[in-house]
Specification:
This protein is α+β, with helices and mostly antiparallel strands. Helices cover 46% and strands 10% of the residues.
Length: 212
């Protein structure tokens, strides 16, 4: 049985869409999934990028597209009152719900729904306190150990080549985005295409553009 690492940040609507679609997209495919909360903002900083919701035009398109995708795949989605927001407390809460920092699906789903199904302020302290009480973390979400866990897991993700969320890793291969789930399914089913040059030689073309 292959293990898939699912890199996510609760700030990302695409991560929620992929999370909700996961059981249907991989139905009948034997696998084990490890949910890995990481800080998307740190990925953006590392690569010198802005998030899609921070760019005029792209911001509006992003929200329209995720609402359409949610409609098409039957995923509940209500935009939070403010977005983007600071997701650090929610990420730490997820990690604090497991001694090893590996939250299960139920924990991740409850936090995703807190953000993407209730139409309220995701970072509101009173709402977060209620959410924390419901999840009953086994470690202190604001403690140094959990803070270090998030930092370490995010750094490790960068080192493994992760540049966005959601991302999925299996056998050293990275798949990015909610729309990569069919591709991931094919890989898990042993499609020989993944052993050929279309995968291994991608990106070999010389980059002839250098921005000033």
């Amino acid at each position: 049985m292959k293990t898939v690492t699912f890199y996510l940040d609760f700030i990302s609507p695409y991560a929620w869409l992929a999370f909700d679609a996961w059981p249907r997209a991989l139905e009948g495919v034997e696998h084990h999934v490890v949910y890995r909360p990481i800080l998307f903002g740190a990925l953006l900083k590392h690569h010198g990028q802005l998030g899609p919701a921070e760019i005029a035009g792209k911001r509006e398109w992003t929200y329209r597209q995720v609402m359409w995708l949610a409609h098409r795949q039957g995923t509940p989605l209500v935009l939070p009152a403010s977005h983007p927001f600071n997701p650090l407390a929610l990420l730490r809460l997820a990690l604090a719900c497991d001694e090893r920092g590996a939250p299960g699906r139920q924990v991740c789903e409850r936090i995703f729904r807190h953000v993407w199904c209730e139409g309220q302020e995701a970072a509101d302290s009173l709402r977060r306190a209620d959410l924390t009480a419901q999840l009953a973390p086994v470690r202190d979400p604001s403690g140094a150990e959990v803070r270090q866990d998030l930092h370490t897991r995010t750094r490790e993700a960068v080192e493994r080549g992760v540049f966005g969320v959601p991302s999925f890793e299996v056998d050293g291969r990275l798949f990015w985005g909610q729309d990569a789930l069919p591709m991931l399914r094919a890989c898990l089913l042993g499609d020989p295409w993944f052993e050929g040059p279309a995968w291994s030689d991608a990106g070999q073309a010389r980059n002839a553009l250098r921005r000033q």
